[in-house]
Amino acid sequence: MTMNKHKIQALAWLNLYSAAACPFASNFGSSGGSPPNDAVHRQGLRRRLNSINSSQPKQRELQVGGGCFTEDTYDAIFVDIEAASAAQPNNVARSHFLGGILRLAAHDFMDFDINDAVAPMGADGCIDWAHQANSGLETIWCDDGSCPLTEIYQEKYSFISRADFWVAASNAVIKLSSPNDEFDLKSTFKWGRVDADQCPDAALRLPGDTDCGEVQDVFLNRLGLTWTDAVALLGGHTLGRGSSDFSGHDGIWVDTDQEATIFDKRYYEEVLRRAWVPRNEGTALQDWTWGGGNNGSPRFMLNTDMCLLFDIETTFPCCSRTDLTRNDGTNQCDTRNSNLSGTECVRTTNDEAANAMVLFSGQRDDGRFGNDNGPFFTAFRVAWQAATTNGWEDSLHEFVLSCGTVSPTPAPLPTTPPTPVPTVPPTPGPTELPTPTISSLPTETCDD
To answer: Which of 6, 41, 96, 107 is labelled catalytic?
Structure first.
């Protein structure tokens, strides 16, 4: 029986992660939980993270085309992410790990501004670690060797820019967590992004969670995308979880902890099928929920999720589905905190966004939902490629075919006349070979 060489390499990583997983993983209970709110530890992590952008060696040779990035390297990243995911102790930890990688890449590219010719930013391997908008990402990327993703990079892929690695790792997450590994973004990937040393005020360009004005400002006005693109990218919320210790929004966007480890269209189904009511009303952390505590993983949606389908400003507070009842006959819109069975949220007048939500959900005419992820995956592929290549369109490269050494050019024969042959032949001796020059030694090449 033979084994793929990447699988063999991954076994070592799997054993390593089993012994020393991300430090927060041990704090996730089997029925729920979140990373600890250890302010001292988090401040220490941030101090270490601040050194990433300034002290980590840059491999500029690869980033500007003098190195090598093969399809084999891309596939190896997938295998290593797969091993690290398998080592997570439960679905809560796994959803945090997988969703966190996707969030890391998104927070890197969402600071792009098509209108800023001086500092457009975008996917440049630079995060404003000290800003609250990026809180929690220090549990995904930390340079002290305690986070699996960073350890994979430092041990095996530091010849790649962080920006390229984060996109490739996210692609691996999406494929790994999609049903039957069916959603493969390899064809969209190109390499050559160059890491930035600093990205001042990058976090100020990230979307807030208040309304669809935030979505329009970031995805349409600055990233240059469409509403359909924005709806597709926000479908990434189907994977991962929110934490009260980080964003302040606690829970999952889907129904169960297991579903929060799967990249599919369930996010859109949840928006349409549930009776969503406001949570934390009157606070800066106001969002939406249904169904109670859900064993430590409450379901929630942000305002920037709900506004894609509903006009939540005109009719707030409201309930998204006043036609749903519980087993005891009571209306699901009526809770201990509010009675909204008489106030249904109206549909948004943003037809492009609303139509995309319904299309991606797979909702049929009878109100039920099909199993086809195709429309969502097709739209996400287009939007993801645009977002991850913004600003780099003319600088990125296809995979090279191979990397390796070539034989040196043979040393030239001497051009001086030979010594005349003596009349008495001398005893034969070894022939002196010319000393090779530096240029004749083997050199690294890449075959495009």
So the answer is: 107
